[in-house]
Design goal:
Helix content: 10-25%
Order of helices and strands: HEHEEEE
Oligomer: single chain
Number of strands: 5
Low-confidence stretches: 6-11
Mean pLDDT: 84
Strand content: over 45%
Largest sheet: 5 strands, antiparallel
Number of domains: 1
Structural class: alpha+beta
Number of helices: 2
Distance between the termini: 35 Å
Shape: elongated
Protein backbone atom coordinates (compact mmCIF):
# COMPACT_ATOMS: atom_id res chain seq x y z
CA UNK A 1 0.00 0.00 0.00
CA UNK A 2 2.86 2.36 0.83
CA UNK A 3 4.32 1.82 -2.66
CA UNK A 4 1.04 2.90 -4.25
CA UNK A 5 0.95 6.08 -2.12
CA UNK A 6 4.54 6.88 -3.07
CA UNK A 7 3.78 6.30 -6.75
CA UNK A 8 0.72 8.57 -6.59
CA UNK A 9 2.72 11.29 -4.85
CA UNK A 10 5.49 11.01 -7.44
CA UNK A 11 2.98 11.26 -10.31
CA UNK A 12 1.33 14.30 -8.71
CA UNK A 13 4.66 16.06 -8.20
CA UNK A 14 5.71 15.29 -11.76
CA UNK A 15 2.42 16.59 -13.16
CA UNK A 16 2.52 19.80 -11.12
CA UNK A 17 6.12 20.57 -12.01
CA UNK A 18 5.17 21.05 -15.64
CA UNK A 19 1.84 22.82 -15.19
CA UNK A 20 1.63 26.23 -16.72
CA UNK A 21 -1.07 28.44 -18.11
CA UNK A 22 -0.84 31.66 -20.06
CA UNK A 23 -3.61 34.23 -20.02
CA UNK A 24 -4.00 37.52 -21.81
CA UNK A 25 -6.39 40.34 -20.97
CA UNK A 26 -7.15 43.57 -22.72
CA UNK A 27 -6.35 44.35 -26.33
CA UNK A 28 -2.78 44.15 -27.60
CA UNK A 29 -1.32 47.17 -29.38
CA UNK A 30 1.96 47.89 -31.14
CA UNK A 31 4.00 49.88 -28.62
CA UNK A 32 6.65 50.67 -31.24
CA UNK A 33 4.15 53.05 -32.88
CA UNK A 34 3.74 55.24 -29.79
CA UNK A 35 6.60 57.49 -30.91
CA UNK A 36 4.36 58.41 -33.89
CA UNK A 37 1.84 60.08 -31.56
CA UNK A 38 2.38 63.86 -31.68
CA UNK A 39 0.81 66.01 -28.96
CA UNK A 40 -1.35 68.75 -30.43
CA UNK A 41 -1.17 67.17 -33.90
CA UNK A 42 -2.39 63.53 -33.89
CA UNK A 43 -6.16 63.22 -34.18
CA UNK A 44 -8.37 60.56 -32.64
CA UNK A 45 -8.96 59.02 -36.09
CA UNK A 46 -5.20 58.87 -36.70
CA UNK A 47 -4.72 57.25 -33.31
CA UNK A 48 -7.25 54.53 -34.19
CA UNK A 49 -5.46 53.89 -37.51
CA UNK A 50 -2.15 53.73 -35.62
CA UNK A 51 -3.09 51.52 -32.65
CA UNK A 52 -6.63 50.29 -33.25
CA UNK A 53 -9.66 50.93 -31.08
CA UNK A 54 -8.89 51.64 -27.40
CA UNK A 55 -10.02 49.21 -24.74
CA UNK A 56 -12.09 51.98 -23.14
CA UNK A 57 -13.06 55.62 -23.56
CA UNK A 58 -14.21 57.84 -20.70
CA UNK A 59 -15.44 61.42 -20.93
CA UNK A 60 -13.42 63.91 -18.95
CA UNK A 61 -15.37 66.99 -20.03
CA UNK A 62 -17.78 68.07 -22.77
CA UNK A 63 -14.93 68.27 -25.29
CA UNK A 64 -12.38 65.88 -23.78
CA UNK A 65 -11.96 62.16 -23.23
CA UNK A 66 -9.39 59.67 -21.96
CA UNK A 67 -8.74 56.69 -24.20
CA UNK A 68 -7.15 53.68 -22.54
CA UNK A 69 -5.16 50.96 -24.23
CA UNK A 70 -4.20 48.05 -22.00
CA UNK A 71 -2.80 44.56 -22.51
CA UNK A 72 -1.52 42.02 -20.00
CA UNK A 73 0.07 38.64 -20.64
CA UNK A 74 0.73 36.43 -17.63
CA UNK A 75 2.06 32.90 -17.30
CA UNK A 76 1.46 30.98 -14.09
CA UNK A 77 3.03 27.68 -13.19
CA UNK A 78 3.25 25.50 -10.10
CA UNK A 79 6.20 23.71 -8.54
CA UNK A 80 6.18 21.43 -5.56
CA UNK A 81 8.74 21.37 -2.78
CA UNK A 82 8.90 20.09 0.77
CA UNK A 83 7.26 23.36 1.90
CA UNK A 84 4.27 22.83 -0.39
CA UNK A 85 3.13 24.00 -3.80
CA UNK A 86 4.57 27.29 -5.03
CA UNK A 87 2.63 29.21 -7.67
CA UNK A 88 4.71 31.64 -9.72
CA UNK A 89 3.27 34.21 -12.08
CA UNK A 90 5.27 36.38 -14.46
CA UNK A 91 4.44 38.49 -17.46
CA UNK A 92 4.16 41.91 -19.02
CA UNK A 93 1.68 44.78 -18.65
CA UNK A 94 1.40 47.56 -21.25
CA UNK A 95 -0.82 50.58 -20.60
CA UNK A 96 -1.36 53.74 -22.60
CA UNK A 97 -3.68 56.54 -21.47
CA UNK A 98 -4.36 59.28 -24.01
CA UNK A 99 -6.10 62.58 -23.26
CA UNK A 100 -7.98 63.83 -26.31
CA UNK A 101 -9.59 67.28 -26.44
CA UNK A 102 -11.50 68.60 -29.42
CA UNK A 103 -10.48 65.50 -31.37
CA UNK A 104 -6.71 65.98 -30.92
CA UNK A 105 -4.20 64.25 -28.61
CA UNK A 106 -3.23 66.64 -25.81
CA UNK A 107 -1.09 64.29 -23.71
CA UNK A 108 -0.42 60.62 -23.05
CA UNK A 109 1.36 58.31 -20.62
CA UNK A 110 2.77 54.91 -21.53
CA UNK A 111 4.10 52.12 -19.30
CA UNK A 112 5.48 48.75 -20.31
CA UNK A 113 6.41 46.85 -17.16
CA UNK A 114 7.34 43.25 -16.50
CA UNK A 115 5.95 41.75 -13.30
CA UNK A 116 6.22 38.60 -11.24
CA UNK A 117 4.64 37.11 -8.14
CA UNK A 118 5.33 34.00 -6.10
CA UNK A 119 2.99 32.46 -3.53
CA UNK A 120 3.18 29.39 -1.37
CA UNK A 121 -0.08 27.47 -1.63
CA UNK A 122 -2.35 28.58 1.21
CA UNK A 123 -0.45 31.83 1.90
CA UNK A 124 -1.92 35.28 1.26
Amino acid sequence: MKNIECLLLLLTVTALAGCGTTQTTGRDFDASKIHDIKKGVTTGDELVRLLGQPLSKSNESANGAVWEYSWKKATSYATTSSAGTVIKTEGDLKTLAVLIKNGVVVSYTFKDDPFWDEKLNGSQ
